[in-house]
Amino acid sequence: xxxxxxxxxxxxxxxxxxxxxxxxxxxxxxxxxxxxxxxxxxxxxxxxxxxxxxxxxxxxxxxxxxxxxxxxxxxxxxxxxxxxxxxxxxxxxxxxxxxxxxxxxxxxxxxxxxxxxxxxxxxxxxxxxxxxxxxxxxxxxxxxxxxxxxxxxxxxxxxxxxxxxxxxxxxxxxxxxxxxxxxxxxxxxxxxxxxxxxxxxxxxxxxxxxxxxxxxxxxxxxxxxxxxxxxxxxxxxxxxxxxxxxxxxxxxxxxxxxxxxxxxxxxxxxxxxxxxxxxxxxxxxxxxxxxxxxxxxxxxxxxxxxxxxxxxxxxxxxxxxxxxxxxxxxxxxxxxxxxxxxxxxxxxxxxxxxxxxxxxxxxxxxxxxxxxxxxxxxxxxxxxxxxxxxxxxxxxxxxxxxx
Length: 403
Ligand code: CTP
Known about the structure:
This protein is an alpha/beta fold. It contains 14 helices and 21 strands. Strand 19 and strand 20 form a beta hairpin. Helix 1 (17-27) packs across helix 9, helix 4 (69-76) packs across helix 6 (101-108) and helix 10 (211-222) crosses helix 14 (378-397). The site of cytidine-5'-triphosphate has 14 residues, from helix 12 and strand 16.
């Protein structure tokens, strides 16, 4: 049975991001009942939430479909989330004031509560707000964020609403994971750039941050998949994802090939080195010895090996980082490596490629489909990629072959 979540939304500029929180919660298999404060309705319409959520948005204590909505909602909830939680909400909740449906629900529930505060830095750091947060934490309330970054009005500082995906990850952590459309599927994702040793100190590396692969892993896990992330990075990942850390292309190949037969889909988002030093010096190469000549040899092409072994029910997704001739190069890789889908991007374009949080990608699939996506966050692109995996695996189950 799906978990029941009350999603409270307060009046703040970040209220528009609660729409994405709502969508991701529903996508994770949650039953979502939105509750908007009066203030929230000035920033975002209840209709938007009603359209996305599992039941119509409620905005008032009186006039809701049921006679005592605060107890009905509070008692039946498995989790109450407030995103964004304003300074006013924190104050009222800490003081036990219930003058609207959201604060009444917070007092009427025994379910875990997750608050995602968002406000200006000065407000977040005010002693009154700090004291309210301390009080709420001491009572067992959970907090996600706020993050540091740009705020409304051009300010920069701590107070930004946590990323919607992170809020949903925290929510899933509290209700014991979600079931979703990918429940029962095993998805293996690689991320980061490999490091090929020159000596014990130096390596040949690349500029991949691992953000794209991490986002794909999190998106698949949110939809209920059993996810293994084979990564060269040490960035924190959401709970429930099995992380295998590797360094070189060879190590990545060993882990991925070992686990391939048990995977329904593999997403190779890692930037795997194509060449490595033929031999790694056992001790540090000293400057005094002159300029060294480093002889390179090819690394195993992991994706091509997977393409050769691929069974009918399995999906293979590759990435193509290009600096020109995007479509032609990506199409060639799609065919050569027997992929179902390739996510191609021009790393020389602004906002695309390494280290940034955004990407502009073109998707090419084995059925000849081409989808030129607009510039979007890596988290949003990850959702699109996982949509395609979900569709592709479902088509295979149904006897179809669509990617
Ligand atoms: N890849 C891989 N093993 C390698 C090199 C690449 O599995 N040794 C995977 C990457 O993870 C990516 C895809 O292959 O999903 C394409 O990688 P890319 O470096 O763009 O392509 P290459 O095949 O290396 O071709 P080229 O260097 O000519 O662009």
